[in-house]
Design a protein that fits this description.
This protein has one domain. It has 150 residues and is mainly alpha-helical. It has a two-stranded antiparallel sheet. The radius of gyration is 19 Å and the shape is elongated. 55% of the residues lie in helices and 3% in strands.
Length: 150
């Protein structure tokens, strides 16, 4: 019985090492240079946007420990790459205030799977209202910035 447990543990270690190796070497986790500066209406708005949006929509992604283990590494890198291609605070790419606010009001952003692992982005009604007001103040009505790639 002890031999079976030992073999099982050794096998588990080998599998973990392979998953970490694959997650570390097969997945690109980048944070390219920030090339665009936003003049936020307040530090509070910037803090809320950073908590809820920047991990997927900027070049300032905080890559957590599970971003180094397959298969979560693949999923996370895909989310970040997709988010950056849709809109990127670090490059000014596709910044559209009306769409940001609409996605927040619909409850689409931040996505539910992100909120599970990032409770700091799970805003109460007052924080969500403050975020929306801050976005409106930072990006005036009709604001649309289209620059560079994701």
């Amino acid at each position: 019985m002890a031999k079976i447990i030992g073999i099982g543990l050794a096998l588990a270690v080998v599998v973990l090492v392979v998953l970490v190796a694959v997650g570390n070497f097969a997945v690109e986790r980048t944070n390219p240079p920030v090339t665009f500066t936003i003049n936020w209406d307040s530090p509070e708005t910037e803090q809320l946007v950073r908590a809820a949006c920047f991990d997927c929509h900027s070049h300032e992604t905080r890559w957590p420990w599970y971003a180094h283990i397959a298969p979560p590494a693949f999923l996370l890198a895909n989310h970040v790459n997709e988010g950056r291609s849709e809109m990127n605070f670090s490059t000014g790419h596709n910044l559209r205030a009306d769409e940001m606010i609409e996605e927040i009001e619909r409850g689409n952003m931040p996505p539910a799977d992100y909120l599970l692992l990032h409770p700091e982005a799970n805003f109460n009604a007052d924080q969500k209202a403050q975020l929306i007001a801050g976005l409106r103040a930072t990006f005036p009505a009709g604001f649309r910035f289209q620059r560079g790639g994701g």
